[in-house]
Amino acid sequence: MNTPSKFIRPIRFYFALFTGTGLILLATMFWSFYSEGNRLQQTVNQQAYEEAKKELVIAINNTLISTQNQLQKLAEWDEVHQQYHDPSYYFFWHDERLKESQYFRSYYDELELFTKDGKLLMPASPKPKIEGPHHRLPGTITSKEPKVVLRDNQEAHLNVYAPVYKRDSDEILGYVGVSLDIFPAILMHNQFFYLDKTSLKFFGNNDIPPSQLINHIKFSPVSNPVNNYLWDLMKRFIIELILTLFVIGLILPIVFKEFIQTPLTQLSEYLQRLRATPHKKQKPPKKTFFIKEFEELKNTIYQYHHNLQKTQLELDEQNLIVWEQARRDPLTNIYNRRAFDEAWNEVIINFQNEPIPTAFMLFDCDFFKALNDTYGHEVGDEVIRASATTIQQTLPMESPAYRIGGDEFAVIIQHRTLEEIQDIAQHCLNALSQYPYHTLGIKEKLPFSVGISSIASTLSDNLTALPRQADIAMYKAKQSHHSKIQVYNHVLENESSALVSNQILNRVVNSIHTGKNIQMHFQPIVASDMSDCYYEALIRINNNQELIYPDKIFAVVERRRLEVELDRQVIFTTLFLLEQRKIPKGTGVSINISGKTLLQPDLIELFAPFITWLHDYKIVIEVTENFLIDHIEYAQKVLNQLRHQGFLIALDDFGSGYSSIRYLAHMPVDIIKFDMSLIKALKSDEKTRKIILATAEMIRGVGFELVMEGIEDEEMLEQAKSAGATYVQGYLFGKPKAEFSKPCNN
Amino acid sequence: MHKNLTAICLGIGLLLSHSISFADTVTHLITPLNLNAEADYQLGQKDKPAILILHGFLTTNQFHTIRSTVQAFHDAGYSTLAPTLTLNINQRKQSVKCNSVHTHTLENDVTEITEWINWLEQQGHKQIVLVGHSSGSLELIAQLAQNHDPKIKLAIFTSLFYLSGPELGISQADFDYATEALKNHNNQPHKYSFLFCKNNYYATADSFLSYQTLNRQNVLNYLKALTIPNYTIMGSADKRYKSVGLNWLDELKESGTNLIVIEGANHFFSSEYEFDLQDRLIEITNHYFN
Questions:
Q1: Pairing state of beta strands B230-235 and B258-262?
Q2: Binary contact (B101, A97; C-beta < 8 A)
Q3: What pLDDT digit, counting tens, does each position of A566-584 carry?
Q4: CA-to-CA distance for A186 and A297, rounded, in angstroms?
Q5: This model's pTM is above 0.80
Q6: Could you read off the pLDDT of B53-78 as tens digits, one per residue?
Q7: Which residue among A366, A643, B234, B235 has its CA within the 20 to 30 Å range from the CA of A322?
Q8: Which residue of A lies nearest to B94 if distances are taken between CA atoms?
Q9: Chain B: closest CA distance from residue A89 (Å)
Q10: In Å, what is the CA distance from B193 to each residue of A95, A300, B103, B170, B240?
């Protein structure tokens, strides 16, 4: 999954985001923790308050009940009855005896005996020991119900009365009444677990029943040491945690910056420096990082880049070697055709931006093929090597020589005048003529021809025409025995059209450039047993109801060096006919291509559209023997590649030139086509016929198909068959024509 | 036949005259004092005398020595009456403390004893035996000294001592104070030292002085003057000998009472000596009435 660009942020952003989020979450958690604790503590306190209140209510009731019980016992006390019998000594009993008796409680503020009418048994004591605010009991009791007496700034008192019954009777003798200080009474009679005894405060200024006393008491529960301790512990924990987080919050950015951000930033900057200047040696960050992995990463990057540079250097060196090897002719060690194409393209491109005087020079050995056949290929190679070296050494330093054909060398010269260029060409020819070729065993003189074309420094000049113009000029030079250096001019162009009319010339050139008026004729090539047949495509050009035949077409093409353009039109037209399904299915077509076309770098691509037709058609590419011998290595490479794709290669016009039988074994071909002259020679002397037959047998013996051309009658057919021809071609089976006749049986 | 009829009539009379039952608490108005007094009364065999058993100083008839004595006589078939002296408290039920207001006098006590003897006689008892413990014995002696009742056939005194004398802690100052107060008609209670009440016996002068008449010599004189058979049972381990001296036993013996000393017994004949006391009491009584 790709990360959206909006999420790609600096590490500081994410650090701040995560840290902030973390702190907010922790703060929320702490606040929740604190709130829960606080709530729990309040709940516990409230619970404790309620428990304390319960305790207090129970204590008040206990005190009341206890007091009532005490009074009841007191009412049964003999001495109380003694007083009712004879109150003469009441004061002494009340003031002395009573206080010392077990019935009197320390928290009793006042205890009196009343008559059954509610009046004091005896009036006030002659020596009252309890006076003032402690004198709570009334002189006459109106209600016997217990009562709490509340007065501002005084102790709260509980007044309780109990009847004194006559012994063994229900008759009431009187009442015993007590007024007690509630506070000590409550404390004495009760145990408290929740109530803070010291917190009791009574308030009010009235008389109330004991049941309402709880509403007139301020109290608080005892502090719960465990609860308080836990709460204090929790608060201290939270505060310590917050302080710790605060300290961490202060330290973390520093630590993060020192431990993470700075190393990452420096490593990132280091990597960016490496990316910006990958070929420059960059020192790693000087800073030593705390984190081992960063330190290792820094060293690893440095080491990796160092190794990468080293590898790159080695690769560059290897590439340079490969580049050189790819652009060097292995035979002569000068630049090859690929190097020439690249250099020429560069010249064309640069010319668009900066037009400069440019000249094109072609060198060609006049009789190289004859030399090759005469002295052998090895000697021919030595001649090529020596010629190349001589030309290269004579040329100016800035103008290398390119071997663009077997014995053909091209030179591109810029910033020179035409005179200077001609001088250079002359120097080269002089050097070549002075080379001691006799050391190679060659006795004849080896003449070289030079064709030159040049343009001035204006864009209007047709730079791309220079090679063809130089070719034309060189063709002219070859025809001359004295002027071996020819400079292209329009006169030469016109001379090339001398063999044909201007009208035909124009029509041929126009057709080759536009493809218009080209008409393909097909002559059948039939298997000797008539089981199979295919057609050789032969070009014709319509010219106002007339056809221009190959003799005139090739006259123009060769003069104007239009072989490649012509072949392309033939290929396109044949392909078009295939696509139009004009060619009978199950047959095939044989296409002739020139040596120059075979040298084109896009040859394979040129025939690629035919691959889909190979299933139903036999596609044969016919090449000439001379070309194969001149470029045997290159020819093997490209033709074998085509053969692997399914194409068949035919060697055309075998026997028309200096056919060398020793090359046959290495020929990258499937079919050998005997030239018509050989067929006709079968009728000559026996010796020639035997040689031809032996050659045919030899060819068949190594597995080649053998096509014999020029079969015009049955006698020739029989001779061809007897010579071992597997296929035959000639007027006997059909002349070349636009329509397809099918002489075979398939 | 006549005897039998008389006995039946007496029994019916007893049942009808008082609504009492066996082991019942009876209340009796002490008319001269206008006080109701209480006593535990248990009817025994009709042919046996009634035993009046009197408690000691400031206690009640629930004192353990008294209760065990009552139980012993009852078990032996005797009717028993164990009154609680009112000490001027209507239907007194509890022991009186030293610091209670003491207004009661020896004369009141004698009156109450006489009233109870009369009450027994009213119940039909023809023969009465008096048994006292400690100061109860002294009060019985005082009653016997002042009254002569032919129905009283026997008197048994236990832990018999006397109530006045410096050896008992009665100070001359208290005596003088009380005498002077009485002379001045000042009857306000005052704290005296009396018997075990050390400086906290809160009594009127009249009350205090009344008991001072029961001094050593008077007690011996009263004993000598007794005309009915009487026995005195003493514990040899009574701590009061430290105050009165062991010669008190000799003096008792010389007084003519039949002195019996139970070896090892204390003033209250506590624990196993309680049975010794009971055995002696029953032996003496049976000796006279079987």
A1: parallel
A2: yes
A3: 999 999 999 999 999 889 8
A4: 81
A5: no
A6: 999 999 999 999 999 999 999 999 99
A7: A643
A8: A78
A9: 7
A10: 20, 115, 15, 6, 16
